[in-house]
Amino acid sequence: MYELSGVTKRYTRGKDTVNALDGIDLTIPDGDRLVIQGPTGGGKSTLLQMLGALDRPTAGRISLDGTDLASLSETRLTRVRSENIGFVFQSFNLIPTLTAQENVETALVPLGVKSKERRERAAEALASVGLGERLAHLPSEMSGGQQQRVAIARALVKRPKVLLADEPTGNLDESMRDEIMDVLERMWQELGLTYIMVTHDSSIARKAPRLATIRKGRITVKENAQA
């Protein structure tokens, strides 16, 4: 699925140069479930942005299914994101004036899916995350956990190959955290996704089959015996 070779990302802050990523080599097989953990500022979110084709490396190569993402035009990168990659973030990023079903449908608009099919697929995606009875509800009429379920349905409705989650439980209490993790793991198993998650939560990291730790832009990966 992913092959990273010598991936470096540098930012300039005044007179200083910061290596957010410092020569990362990483292989993520198709169907993998990888959790990325590390201190704030260590490079976790930067790495996720690279995997999501949201940013380009300063140096090195990021290959997705054999295609070097850094070599693609912005138009083609947008297409890769739209077709192949689903995103779930800490903030739910729902449109407050749209219903749950309409929010999920927004992911299909760039793909040119016709309105009838959009409605059907959105309803199906919401049912798969346990919100089949909430199609017409606005975000303000749902709990935080329910809103994050809508965000998950929106990420999955386009049937991506990859699901990237950046602190998806960060705004939720412990009971809602466990509920959302159950949904994400069930979707990974049922859909055969490659699932990559950034988290600060050690209780989540302990359950991951593979755990990557990133500090000062360098990464180590180990099989997780406790998973």
From TrEMBL:
It holds the Pfam family ABC_tran. One of its GO terms (molecular function) is ATP binding. Residues 2-227 form the ABC transporter domain. Transmembrane segments: none annotated. GO terms for cellular component: membrane protein complex; plasma membrane. Keywords: ATP-binding, Nucleotide-binding, Transport. The keyword Kinase does not apply. This is ABC transporter ATP-binding protein. It comes from Streptomyces fumanus.
